[in-house]
Write a structure and sequence with these properties.
The protein has 3 helices and 7 strands. By secondary structure, the protein is α+β, with helices and mostly antiparallel strands. The strands form 2 sheets. It has a 5-stranded antiparallel β-sheet with strand order 2-4-5-6-3. A two-stranded parallel sheet has the order 1-7. About 30% of the residues are buried. The mean pLDDT is about 95.
Length: about 160
């Protein structure tokens, strides 16, 4: 195993066209379909980073801030922004794109934690995170700040 891996090595972008099987009765994306796509994208980012199989350990709070309409393209983008001994934290963003107008809008963001597994299915160490470029540093810092802010907002909602 390499001692470090770069944020860029984990970058993953997927696209999905929203078709009827993944829509609700309003013709908009089912939340479960979007979460499924996010989990897959995050797992691929974690596997690219660690060169290991990974399993989902947790997913932070999710707010669906804009719908994805039937016929639009969902763009799901993820990257590793932090590591533990056997875990990787992945930021996953989803945008909707109208392919006829090229307009895009942010629909949701969440933060996942995945655990790397060895060939026997046991947690195994992951490389440390390297951010050799300024762009990678900015992405890492934005994800760290965004996760902290999201957690602060969630706690504030329930702070009685």
């Amino acid at each position: 195993m390499d001692e470090t891996a770069t944020l860029a090595s984990s970058h993953t972008e997927m696209t999905e066209m929203l078709l009827p099987n993944d829509t609700n009765n309003l013709g908009r994306a089912l939340g479960g379909a979007v979460l499924h796509w996010m989990d897959i994208c995050g797992a691929i980012a974690g596997m690219r980073f660690s060169n290991r199989q990974v399993v989902t350990a947790s997913m932070d709070h999710v707010d669906f801030i804009a719908p994805i309409e039937m016929g639009e393209v969902a763009i799901i983008e993820g990257y590793v922004f932090n590591t533990g001994r056997t875990s990787v934290d992945v930021k996953v963003d989803v945008r909707a794109e109208n392919p006829r107008t090229d307009e895009t809008r942010r629909t949701t963001t969440s933060y996942f934690t995945f655990v790397a597994l060895d060939d026997d299915g046991r947690p195994t160490p992951v490389p440390g995170l390297a951010c050799p470029t300024e762009d990678e540093e900015v992405l890492r810092d934005d994800a760290m700040d965004g996760r902290e802010e999201q957690l602060r907002q969630v706690v504030g909602r329930y702070d009685l």
